[in-house]
Each structure stands twice: as structure tokens, then as C-alpha cells.
């Protein structure tokens, strides 16, 4: 009699094992269900295409624009600082400008000693070809040069500045009274200074634009605001003996400028007069201002014949001027009648 099949019995035929149903997640029916069921997902909106209307901060165009703005800001800042510095420099005197008290007894004594010493050196009796050592005047030692009739005199910065601020006005007035020269001192100009160094003569003055020529003398404390002007000159003797002093540099306060910017080219004083007229139109119109501008611009010599005639008929010729190390070395030659 054949055996009956009972599920789960140990004597089940091996060929029928694959027909058993399994219910776990790893069963074949579960895997078929996972692959067969479609996956449910939310629809994703499509992104709009990128445009170039608003470049990001990392684009080359933005970087170039930022660089241009930065450079422009730096240039404006530097220009502004430069203008402020230039204005500040114009309000200060040059570095070589020293204090001189024209009312100080020591300054007065120095100025008088300079004038007397130079007069003594000029008029001293010396044979034209003599090499005898002369007596030194108060201005400094006088030494022969090795050439017949030539001698040297030394004047320091302090001595020259003392004489310019104490005795120059009186000396010019005396020379004008004698008919030797014609000169009227402009009231707008005062406090002269010189400095001798490196083969150049720096000369400057303070100008008070608000004062008028011919007006009554005004106390310095009541003059108002002043402007310091200076020029750096190189003395040169031409072949004909004329003395030239062309300006190489002009200072407005402590601000240095090329002389050509202020005075113009050689042969013309129009630009220089225009520059002076910005301070004072009256000062620019004076004849002596024109002579100074002519010399400083190189349009003409300071002295065409640098010769001093003495009362006894002799002549003293200016041979050379050497500004070095705070003193002026002047070489002169005494000539016969």
C-alpha cells in the first residue's frame, strides 16, 4: 500500500523541496514583488538656465572693476596728500633759513665790522704787482692768490646775514643820495637771508603782500601774513668778465621748484612777473623787480663790468666768487690808474 504524503515529514521526497512556500523577506516571492512594484518619487522642478546678467564676485569682469576702483582711490588719496604737503611746505621757510635779530647789539656790531672790513680791504694801499701780505680785516683773512695784485676775502653766512638785515637799506639809501644808483626799497620785502654752500648762493626774502610801497613803516608784528621766497644761484664769470647769477631752483617757502617753472625761459621775464604779481601787483611793477628777474632767469648779467672805482683812481676788479661750506670766498684784483 503506498505511503501518504504529509507536509513537514522527514520522509518527503527531495525533489519536492523547491515547491515549499517561504514567507521571510529573503524569499523569492518577496524579491519578485520588490522588482515588480514601481518606485514612487516626487517630481523635481527643472532649474532655469544660467545667465550672464549678474556676474558673481568671482568673475574676471568683477575683479577688473574692483581693481580699477581700488587704483583710482589710491591715486586720489596720493594726489590729495601731495597737495596738502605742498601747501604745508609753502608755509615754512627753507631749511637753511636761520634766525637773525637785527636789533641785537651783537648782530649790529657784526654788520658794522663787515662793512668796515670790506671798505678797508678795498682801499688798502698795495702795489699792483705786490705780493705783500695785507692786514686782515674783521670779515676774515685776506690772502694773496699768487697772481699780481690779486687777493681774497672770506665772508661767512652769519656775517653776510647780519649786514643784509642791519646795513643794506641804509647803504642803498646812501648810494642813492650820492647819485651812484637809483633804488627805492619796497616795503613789501624784508628779512633777507643768504646761504653759501656747494658752489651755490641761496638768497631769499620774506614778502608781505598786504603792504604798499611808500607807506609808513609798520611794526613787524603788525604786517600780517608773509610768504618766503628764495632762489638758488650759481655765480659764473663769462669770457668778457661779466658776472652772471642764473637761478637753478626757486623755493616757495620750503617747496623747491625748477626755476623754469616759475621764471620762464631765458630772455623773458613775463612769467616771473606774473608769478610775483600773484603776491603783489605793485611789487611786480617795480623796476628793481624786473632787474632781479632778468638776472635770475638768465636773460642778462648781474654786473656787466664788475669793477669798483676807488677815490684815488685805482680799480678793484671782481675776479671770482666761490660759495663753499658756509662762507663766500671772493677773489679781487687791484688794478692801477
What does this structure look like?
The protein is an alpha+beta fold and 337 residues long. The protein has a domain at 105-212 and 225-335. The chain is built from nine helices and ten strands. It has a five-stranded antiparallel beta sheet. Strands 3-4-5-6-7 form a five-stranded antiparallel beta sheet. β6 (243-252) and β7 form a beta hairpin. The chain is elongated, with a radius of gyration of 48 Å.
What is the N-to-C order of secondary-structure elements (H for helix, E for strand)? HHHEEHHEEEEEHHHHEEE
Q: List low-pLDDT spans.
A: 1-41, 129-139
Structural class, please? alpha+beta
Biggest sheet strand line-up: 1-2-10-9-8
Quick structural gist:
This protein is α+β, with helices and mostly antiparallel strands and 337 residues long. It has 9 helices and 10 strands.
Pick out its properties.
single chain; 337 residues; alpha+beta; five-stranded antiparallel β-sheet; 31% helix; 22% strand; elongated
Topology:
Layout: H1 28-36, H2 60-90, H3 105-123, E1 143-144, E2 150-156, H4 157-166, H5 168-177, E3 189-197, E4 200-207, E5 227-237, E6 243-252, E7 255-258, H6 259-263, H7 270-277, H8 281-284, H9 287-296, E8 307-309, E9 315-324, E10 327-335
Helix pairs in contact: 3-4
Amino acid at each position: 500500500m503506498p505511503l501518504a504524503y504529509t507536509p513537514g515529514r522527514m520522509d518527503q521526497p527531495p525533489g519536492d523541496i523547491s515547491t515549499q512556500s517561504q514567507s521571510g523577506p529573503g524569499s523569492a516571492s518577496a524579491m519578485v514583488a520588490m522588482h515588480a512594484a514601481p518606485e514612487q518619487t516626487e517630481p523635481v522642478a527643472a532649474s532655469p538656465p544660467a545667465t550672464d546678467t549678474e556676474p558673481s564676485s568671482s568673475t574676471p569682469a568683477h575683479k577688473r572693476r574692483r581693481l580699477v576702483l581700488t587704483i583710482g582711490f589710491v591715486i586720489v588719496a596720493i594726489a590729495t596728500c601731495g597737495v596738502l604737503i605742498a601747501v604745508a611746505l609753502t608755509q615754512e621757510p627753507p631749511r637753511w633759513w636761520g634766525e637773525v635779530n637785527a636789533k641785537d647789539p651783537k648782530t649790529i656790531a657784526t654788520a658794522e665790522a663787515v662793512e668796515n672790513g670790506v671798505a678797508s680791504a678795498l682801499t688798502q694801499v698795495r702795489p699792483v704787482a705786490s705780493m705783500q701780505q695785507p692786514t686782515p680785516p674783521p670779515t676774515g683773512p685776506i690772502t694773496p692768490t699768487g697772481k699780481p695784485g690779486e687777493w681774497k676775502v672770506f665772508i661767512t653766512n652769519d656775517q653776510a646775514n647780519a649786514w643784509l638785515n642791519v646795513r643794506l637799506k641804509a647803504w642803498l639809501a646812501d648810494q642813492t643820495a650820492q647819485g651812484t644808483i637809483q633804488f627805492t626799497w619796497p616795503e613789501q620785502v624784508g628779512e633777507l637771508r643768504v646761504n653759501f654752500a656747494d658752489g651755490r648762493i641761496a638768497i631769499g626774502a620774506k614778502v608781505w603782500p598786504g603792504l604798499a610801497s611808500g607807506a609808513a613803516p609798520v611794526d613787524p608784528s603788525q604786517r600780517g601774513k608773509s610768504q618766503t621766497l628764495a632762489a638758488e644761484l650759481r655765480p659764473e664769470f663769462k669770457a668778457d668778465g661779466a658776472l652772471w647769477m642764473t637761478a637753478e631752483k626757486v623755493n616757495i617757502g620750503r617747496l623747491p621748484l625748477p626755476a623754469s617753472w616759475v621764471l620762464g625761459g631765458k630772455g623773458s621775464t613775463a612769467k616771473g612777473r606774473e608769478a610775483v604779481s600773484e603776491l603783489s601787483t605793485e611789487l611786480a611793477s617795480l623796476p628793481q623787480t624786473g632787474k632781479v628777474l632778468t638776472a635770475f632767469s638768465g636773460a642778462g648779467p648781474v654786473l656787466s663790468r664788475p669793477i669798483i672805482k676807488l677815490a684815488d683812481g685805482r680799480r678793484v676788479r671782481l675776479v671770482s666768487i666761490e660759495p663753499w661750506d658756509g662762507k663766500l670766498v671772493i677773489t679781487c684784483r687791484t688794478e692801477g690808474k
